[in-house]
Amino acid sequence: MVFGWVLKMISIKSKAEIELMKKSGEILAQALEKMKESVKPGVTTGELDRIVEDFIRSNGAIPSFKGYKGLPGAVDYPGSICASVNDEVVHGIPGLRELKDGDIISVDIGVYLNGYHADAARTFPVGNISEEAQKLIDVTRQSFYEGIKHAVDGNRIIDISIAIQDYVENNGFSVVREYVGHGIGKEMHEAPQIPNYRTRERGPRLQPGMTLAVEPMVNTGKYFVKLLENKWTVVTADGSLSAHYENTIAITDAEPIILTKI
Ligand code: MF3
Ligand code: CO
């Protein structure tokens, strides 16, 4: 989601609510598995969208992103996935684009079931990719895990942010500033915001029952991004590659639980 601090109440979920979110998360994790098998040279991003939408609906759930309201002047979001290729950071609109050997594609999916959303993303290689692209995928994934080591009762949001930023920058890449993670539950985007870098605000304290979408977006070049004319697709300003890794997690009295995992 777009960065901008707003003071809002954070909803604390009961154990029963977290169980419901786990259901949404399981369907989402299975949809991502399907993407792992389906991403290959020659497939279009529109075909990937169709596979995911059919899968989500066949499980009695609803794709969270479809029809989501964007910026003034933008169409309501037309896809069930975001499909962001190479220099596209997030919110790539699925369509006729064919994947080529050597591309990387970030697939972001939202699932809504029984009143609760789950949100997760992965970046997949298309055929054989460069060493740099593979390192980008690996560092982005690991930065998520570095971040959630700090996602424990009593810490603050910024403890997650710092761990992600330091890991990414120590590996020579940069983290996107303008888009951040977020609370999630009955709404896809809830408080608090979760930047993947140090901000002036330390953010609220974490407590059991918070459910968060932690989603580092990492560029091989500079962190600056720009928005394309369709007012959805975000690309790196310098044309460098970008990767995305996201899971929905629940804060507990011990380790966080990853809800978007099988
Ligand atoms: N994970 C993305 C985000 O939090 C998904 C939003 S896609 C949209 O911004 F289409 F729903 F906007
Ligand atoms: Co998200």
Question: Would you mind describing this structure in some detail?
Answer:
With 262 residues, the chain is an alpha+beta fold. It has a single domain, classed as Creatine Amidinohydrolase (Alpha-Beta Complex). Helix content is 27%, strand content 24%. The strands form four sheets. The chain has a five-stranded antiparallel β-sheet. Strands 1, 2, 4 and 5 form a four-stranded antiparallel β-sheet that branches. Strands 3-12-11 form a three-stranded antiparallel β-sheet, with no helix packed on it. The longest helix is centred in the first third of the chain and has 24 residues, at 15-38. The mean pLDDT is 97. Cobalt (II) ion binds at residues 119, 182, 213, 215, 246.
Molecules bound to protein: 2-amino-4-trifluoromethylsulfanyl-butyric acid, cobalt (II) ion
- For the secondary structure, the number of strands is 15
Radius of gyration: 17 Å
Helices and strands, in order, run as HHEEEEEHHEEEEEEEEEE
Classify the secondary structure makeup into a structural class. Answer: alpha+beta
- CATH fold node name: Creatine Amidinohydrolase
Largest sheet: 5 strands, antiparallel
Instruction: Enumerate how many helices there are, as a single number.
Output: 4
Low-confidence stretches: none
| Terminal residue distance | 25 Å
The CATH top-level class label: Alpha Beta
When the domains are counted, the total is 1
Which architecture would the CATH scheme give at its second level? Alpha-Beta Complex
Order of strands side by side in the largest beta sheet? 8-7-9-14-15
Shape: globular
